[in-house]
Design a protein that fits this description.
This protein is α/β, with parallel strands linked by helices. The chain contains 20 helices and 14 strands. The chain folds into 4 domains: 118 residues, Response regulator (Rossmann fold, 3-Layer(aba) Sandwich), CATH 3.40.50.2300; 151 residues, P-loop containing nucleotide triphosphate hydrolases (Rossmann fold, 3-Layer(aba) Sandwich), CATH 3.40.50.300; 75 residues, Orthogonal Bundle (Helicase, Ruva Protein, domain 3), CATH 1.10.8; 54 residues, Arc Repressor Mutant, subunit A. 47% of the residues lie in helices and 13% in strands. The strands form 4 sheets. The protein has a 5-stranded parallel sheet with strand order 2-1-3-4-5, sandwiched between helices. Strands 7-8-11-6-12 form a 5-stranded parallel sheet. It is elongated.
Length: 468
Amino acid sequence: MKSVKPTVLIVDDDKNTRDGLARALKRHYEILLAESGERALAILSNTPADVVISDVRMPGMDGLTLLQRVMTHTPQPIVMVITAYGNVETAVKAMKHGAYDFLTKPVNLDHLDILIKRALHSQKVEGQIENLHEQLDAKYGITNIIGSTPVMIDVFETIKQAAPTPATILLQGESGTGKEVAAHAIHQLSPRSKGPFIAVHCAALSPSLLESELFGHEKGAFTGATSRRMGRFEMADGGTFFLDEISEVDPAIQVKLLRVLEERTFERVGGDEPVDVDIRLIVASNRNLKELVAKGKFRNDLYYRLDVVNITMPPLRDRLNDIPVLCQHFLKDFNHKNDRQIEGIVPEVMNVFSGYAWPGNVRELRNTIEKMVVLGRGKKLTLRDIPANIRDEASDLASGSSWTGGPTPASGSIEEAEQLMIQTALKKNNGNRTKAAQEVGISRRTLHRKLKKYQLEDSAESENAESE
């Protein structure tokens, strides 16, 4: 079957420009032509376009106004703007309104072709990610665990198989990998889903407080115990009990936990009346329990009672391909919670994220996206919105930063634009690297690295010397 070509709408009041771009692109794309913004909207009302390429300065409706109108269409096309008069300020304004990229006249046709292919590929991948997430949710019924990498598929399969059983589950993995989220998913997929889900974070409580929290206490059991108090085990009766950071539990309480696992019964603190419970136990640890057993820091018999089904939540650095879908999920969530309307994340941000180690794992990524959404200044999240510590530490730092002043490079190249940004900022601040870095929106350390990359060290040093 013959493949359908993507449709490109070219909008320019200059006939020669329209026809020239059409000739260059018609081999790979279906071409639509419009001589004005008004005509372009009329065409789009009847014929959807995958890509819109528009001049900025046109009689009547200008390119930026057209861009804002086009971005309200569903499905939303990719928009690129072209100008003969532009500077980076105009380009930044266009990007804030949702443009994918900008070019300057005369247009480098090879560069334009690369941009279109990259944009269409990006759009396709985003669609595939969203579709895959819907398929995973339909298949596994797991709405809050996000991922499509092989290690996560293994996690999904194990959860799906173990959840309907009464088996005790041990979740292991670094902090921030989503162990509690997995515990909730197991509960929701189990026959106990209509019962309570009760969680206790063991490391947050002293041994005496933890014992009372878990098992409850009788009136007069200790100073301040003015009445009988139900413990968390009782609260979880008929449902699921989740013990996080089990490795931090005091040895004396480990003995009592072992009895609950073996007999499903215990006594409240200060009491001798047995309390029977019907619970499903899930425990989690960010430390290797088997190693703690070998060191004598965790009971051997309790470990083997807990280690019935062992699920290891992988660190984010081992599932980097899940970062885009996680980001889209968090972006949607925090847009809603903060009443924001950020439309997406530029590909360069993903390059930086892929080069960062994520010591805080998914939790750190989630917090990062929340911070970027709250403080973001444009329609999309860009390199400038990334927290400085992540920009500095990422080993695969992408080129290009948002910029609000200075000349536009003739070729429209992002690298050339960045080089000009740095030179302009240094000149404006009399060679002061700290101030120049702040103006560009990067750290001083990153500025130093980019000076070396673009071989600007000598000129920067001479400017600095002149300012002294």
